[in-house]
Amino acid sequence: MNTVVLLSGVVEIGLGTALAAVRSKRMGWLVGGFFVAVFPGNISQYVNHTNAFGLDTDVRRAVRLIFQPALVAWAIWSTADDGLRR
């Protein structure tokens, strides 16, 4: 398995844990920014048909790409002021 993929997964778990614990706007934007930063790697896995962590078909890799913007929005929304969540 590619070391970069493994390390980005460890960072993702750490950021998710921090987001749940801290729940600050800054943390929401940091997590959202991370999801944006790894998006080109997700595209590369799709284009190059690279298997990783259960993503062993193009359909699964494509579904991940489709939901990536939702993850960004969710990270930011989850720490937004109440006015933005209504």
List keywords for this structure.
86 residues, mainly alpha, 4 helices
Calculate the mean pLDDT score and round it. 88
Number of helical stretches of at least 4 residues: 4
Q: What portion of residues belong to β-strands?
A: under 5%
Using the CA coordinates, give the radius of gyration: 14 Å
Order of helices and strands: HHHH
Shape: elongated
- Largest beta-sheet details: none
Structural class: mainly alpha
The total beta strand count reads: 0
What is the CA–CA distance across the termini?
A: 42 Å
| Low-confidence parts | none
**Helix-residue proportion:** over 70%
Brief overview, please?
This protein is mainly alpha-helical and 86 residues long. The protein has helices at residues 3-22, 25-47, 58-77, 82-85.
Describe the structure.
78% of the residues lie in helices and 0% in strands. 12% of the residues are buried. With 86 residues, the chain is an all-alpha fold. It starts with a helix and ends with a helix. α1 runs antiparallel to α2 and α2 packs antiparallel against α3. The protein is elongated and about 40 Å long. The mean pLDDT is 88.
